[in-house]
Design goal:
CATH architecture of the largest domain in chain B: 2-Layer Sandwich
Strand order of the largest sheet of chain B: 2-1-5-4-3
Number of helices of chain A: 9
Shape of chain A: elongated
Distance between the termini of chain A: 37 Å
Number of helices of chain B: 25
CATH topology of the largest domain in chain A: Rossmann fold
Distance between the termini of chain B: 140 Å
Oligomer: heterodimer
Structural class of chain A: alpha/beta
Order of helices and strands of chain A: EHEHEHEHEHHHHH
Radius of gyration of chain A: 23 Å
CATH architecture of the largest domain in chain A: 3-Layer(aba) Sandwich
């Protein structure tokens, strides 16, 4: 049902690890288990939709710290948190930091499976989005710097004449550059171009 | 001699010769050269009582004493052959059978006469010398006797001639001078004695010679064995003509006598001094009961001047009521020799001159002097001693009263452990008699289960001399119940350290013990409450610990259900899952059991424990908390620790409390420096020491108040953890304290006495 995806389980308790792996297998989900965050970090992440099932209390590094650490490393993987007991402040912090779900042990199997499914979907969507942005960036990068300037000004809502005046060039030159830009971006309309450029700019803003 | 010759001789004898012989007023025998007798005179025949016929030939020899015959014959033959005069002394038998001594000699040889026998005849005269012989024998006997006296005399006796040459010295002389007769006779004093001494002797000799009468001299000489004093009696010895021909001497060594005399004088003087200076009165009385002597002490003791007592009856020294008794007893003794009182150390009552009666101790001695009995009494004033004795008795009475009235049970025992005294209180308590408690009789009151421990402890104390202390249950007679008592005893020793006696007490501490048990229960309850508090703090960890296996169980169970729903029935997969479920379920229940054990209301039970095991259990219990707080645990446990006698739960509680405190203290510290050190070892005194070290914020200025109840630095703390921990450790005979750790943090240490056993 769900094509090539992978669930990473990090828990210091071997029983919990193996039981989770077993439970996930019953719905056809493949899981890999780790006893600590560090052992997970040592594994090279495969380029397939995946998610993390993480115990909040981990030896060496706590779950929340680990969440922060992943963000710092620019590793975007949806996290389903597990905790020994409901700790509201902790769950709020986790959710704010982008956690998919915060489950209290012992949890209902369906809750976990749902959360994992949501996480994988989210990762899948992110991956799709990331791929589009990467395409657009590639297209945008193929523009000359003058064409990128002109396209950016067009998206900002400036008229050709205004752009020409701004750049100190002829309006006709601006027109040529604009149409070459839209062609390279494969944008059918101005509205489409605007959406495209927004997507190109957004991840880079996020990354900075 | 033949019969023929005899007859011829008889016939041929010239009458004149025969007549001549007959007229000699002596016994005469006319013998032929061969010794045979030709004839004898009438005197001879009358003496011997034999006829001529019988005496002729050799018949006369029958009159000679048989012992003298052979000697006579020898003499005769010797004379005949040599021609020498013949003279010998023999005994001859008289007619009455008695023997008399005779001198027999050849008186006259008669040449042969004509017409007769041509033989030479010899006239033999026999002279009766019996009287002389007897006188001689008597003289000899007398001399021998004298000699014997001289020789056996213990005195030195000697005789010197006028020139001072020794003529005789007796055996004692020779013994004393170490000389023989040959060395003395003919010698003078100059040759026998040192010059000085010799001249003294010679001077006295001259004195005697001059005076012609016996003179006595005293001589003092220094000899090998010391100074000798001698009395020398020298006397002149006269010859028959009344002339002095020598000096006799008799020497008497009076050294010994002198010495004895000196000793006697000394003894008498000593006795006199003793009597004069004695602190006891010495009084003598005669057979009439009159005082004959009283020494100066009599004045001091009785107040009587000794001089004025002389002649007075002894009874003046006695109180009136004793006098008759004394007189009667004394008369009876004189009559029958039966003593009415003991003569040695008898205690009597005496009377002072001032009328005061006082106790005396009297000893008597009896002596007979010139036929009269003298009795001497030694009278000692014992009023001071009596007084002291009375005081001692009073003191003993006071002590006895004290021991009998003191609100304590007291006892004493011989050095061998046999009880010899219990005071009345102890007897009342046990209901036993003084006789019944003696020896080991008191053991009857000891509870059956305590007898062994009690007798062992007492045996150890008695044999080692160590103070005795033992708790035991004692049967109280009043209500016939066994009550907890403690007995303590110390030995009394003499100067050499030898035990003279044991003195002990027994204290009924039943009520106290019950109160203490109640207190212990309260303490245990408080400790339990504290544990519950600790558990509260650990709740999150406990939940986590239980949740982990429960989560696994749920997951596995859910997975199985899903597989069943999908009819995906791989038995291996299902079995593995079910096995895990069972394992996790067991694990969860173990966690719960551990926690229940920790907080349950269990009686305090002390057993011998290996503290390392307790440390590991507590680290497990606190494991999650340590984990959660990123605390690194460094354990240094000594493997061969002796066991400690303790309650497991209480020890766990103390350790958990210390560890939780440490975790909390380190919560604020940076992750990398959160180190909890737990160490166990044996300290210098052989006790078990546990240290819990943290790298936290340290004790700061609050160190002093750490163990104060309700003092806390925690937001939710009750402030009872450390005080309770300390009281728990102290109730085990240990100590708990806090010190600063280096470079920062705190060290909590506790010590427990080791039992001496090692964990197997």
């Amino acid at each position: 049902m769900i094509a090539a995806s992978l669930v990473f389980v990090i828990d210091d308790d071997p029983s919990v690890r193996s039981s989770l792996k077993f439970l996930l297998s019953t719905v056809g989900l493949q899981a890999e288990t780790f006893e600590s965050a560090n052992s997970f970090l040592r594994r090279k992440a495969p380029d397939i939709p995946s998610c993390l099932v993480l115990d909040v209390r981990l030896p060496g590094l706590s779950g929340l710290d680990f969440q922060r650490e992943l963000a710092t490393r620019n590793i975007c993987i949806p996290i389903v948190f597990l905790t020994g007991h409901g700790d509201i402040p902790m769950s709020v912090r986790a959710m704010k930091a982008g956690a998919v779900e915060f489950l209290t042990k012992p949890f209902r199997d369906q809750d976990l499976l749902d959360a994992v499914r949501v996480a994988l979907d989210r990762d899948r969507a992110r991956r799709k989005h990331d791929k589009e942005v990467a395409d657009l960036r590639q297209r945008f990068d193929s523009l000359t710097s003058r064409e990128q300037q002109v396209v950016s000004m067009v998206v900002a809502g400036m008229l050709n004449k205004q752009i020409a005046a701004e750049l100190g060039t002829a309006e006709s030159t601006v027109k040529v550059q604009r149409s070459r830009g839209m062609e390279k971006m494969q944008a059918a309309s101005l509205a489409e171009l605007i959406k495209m450029i927004e997507k190109v700019k957004a991840p880079s803003e996020k990354a900075s | 001699m033949t019969a023929e010759t005899q007859s011829s001789a008889q016939t041929s004898e010239p009458l004149d010769l025969q007549m001549l012989i007959e007229t000699i007023p002596a016994m005469v025998v006319c013998a032929l050269p061969d010794g045979s007798v030709e004839f004898t005179n009438r005197a001879w025949q009358e003496y011997t009582g034999g006829s001529l016929q019988q005496l002729r030939g050799s018949g006369w020899q029958t009159a000679i004493h048989p012992d003298d015959v052979s000697g006579f014959a020898e003499e005769w033959n010797a004379s005949r052959s040599s021609g020498k005069p013949f003279a010998t002394e023999v005994r001859m038998r008289r007619a009455d059978g008695q023997y008399h001594w005779f001198l027999i000699r050849k008186a006259l040889a008669i040449p042969p006469h004509q017409g007769g026998d041509s033989s030479l005849r010899t006239l033999i005269a026999c002279e009766d010398i019996n009287d002389r012989k007897q006188a001689e024998a008597k003289q000899r006997q007398s001399e021998i006797q004298l000699q014997a006296f001289f020789e056996n005399s213990p005195n030195v006796i000697f005789l010197k001639d006028r020139e001072g040459r020794y003529l005789y010295a007796n055996r004692e002389f020779k013994r004393v001078r170490h000389v023989t007769t040959g060395q003395i006779n003919g010698k003078t004093d100059t040759e026998l004695f040192p010059t000085e001494q010799a001249s003294v002797f010679q001077a006295s000799d001259r004195q005697v010679l001059k005076a012609g009468v016996p003179i006595e001299f005293e001589q003092v000489t220094v000899e090998e064995d010391g100074r000798h004093t001698r009395i020398v009696q020298k006397f002149p010895v006269f010859n028959a003509d009344g002339e002095i021909y020598g000096i006799g001497g008799i020497v008497t060594d009076i050294t010994e006598r002198k010495r004895e005399e000196a000793a006697r004088l000394y003894l008498e003087e000593s006795h006199r001094l003793i009597v004069e200076t004695a602190s006891d009165a010495v009084v003598s009385m005669d057979e009439m009961g009159a005082i004959r002597f009283a020494n100066p002490a009599t004045m001091r003791i009785f107040g009587h001047d000794p001089a004025e007592l002389i002649g007075k009856p002894l009874t003046v020294l006695m109180p009136e009521w004793m006098r008759k008794l004394h007189d009667g007893g004394f008369r009876r003794y004189l009559a029958t020799g039966q003593r009415h009182i003991n003569w040695q150390g008898t205690e009597l009552t005496a009377l002072r001159k001032n009328g005061e009666e006082f106790p005396v101790e009297v000893s008597f001695g009896e002596q007979t002097r010139e036929g009269h009995k003298v009795f001497t009494g030694f009278i000692r004033d014992i009023s001071a001693r009596k007084h002291a004795e009375e005081q001692l008795r009073a003191s003993e009475r006071t002590l006895r009263e004290l021991t009998e009235t003191i609100p304590q049970m007291l006892w004493s025992a011989e050095p061998d452990g046999a009880v010899d005294y219990c005071n009345q209180r102890a007897l009342d308590y046990t209901g036993l008699s003084a006789e019944q408690v003696r020896g080991a009789g008191w053991m009857k009151t000891v509870h059956r289960d305590d007898i062994e421990g009690m007798s062992r402890a007492w045996t150890v104390a008695v044999s080692s001399g160590e103070p005795f202390q033992q708790e035991f249950r004692c049967l109280r007679a009043a209500d016939q119940t066994y009550r907890w008592c403690i007995s303590r005893a110390l030995p009394l020793r003499d100067l050499s350290g030898r035990i003279l006696k044991w003195f002990g007490t027994v204290v009924d501490l039943h009520d106290w013990k019950e109160a203490q048990q109640a207190l212990q229960m309260i303490q245990a309850e408080l400790a339990r409450v504290s544990r519950l508090t600790t558990m509260g703090e650990l709740a999150a960890s406990i939940a986590h610990e239980v949740n982990q296996p429960l989560t696994a169980v749920t997951n596995n169970g859910s997975a199985c259900l899903r597989l069943l729903a999908n009819r995906n029935l791989n038995p291996d997969v299902l079995r593995r899952a079910l096995e895990e479920i069972v394992a996790d379920g067991t694990r969860a229940s173990a966690v719960i059991a551990r926690i229940r054990g920790f907080i349950k209301k269990a009686p305090v039970e002390r057993t011998e424990l290996d503290i390392n095991k307790i440390i590991q259990e507590v680290l497990t219990l606190a494991g999650h908390e340590l984990h959660k707080n990123q605390v690194v645990v460094e354990c240094q446990l000594t493997n061969t620790l002796p066991l400690v006698r303790a309650d497991r739960i209480q020890l766990q509680q103390v350790l958990l409390n210390l560890i939780m405190n440490s975790i909390e203290a380190m919560a604020g510290a940076p992750n990398q420096s959160r180190v909890l050190g737990v160490e166990s070892r044996v300290d210098e005194s052989g006790d078990v020491l546990v240290e819990v070290r943290d790298s936290g914020t340290g004790l700061g200025s609050e160190a002093d108040r750490l163990f104060t109840p309700f003092f806390t630095t925690k937001a939710n703390g009750m402030g009872m953890g450390l005080p309770i921990s300390r009281s728990l450790i102290e109730s085990h005979g240990g100590r708990l304290w806090a010190t600063a750790n280096s470079p920062h943090g705190a060290v909590f240490s506790f010590m427990l006495p080791a039992t001496g056993e090692s964990p197997s």
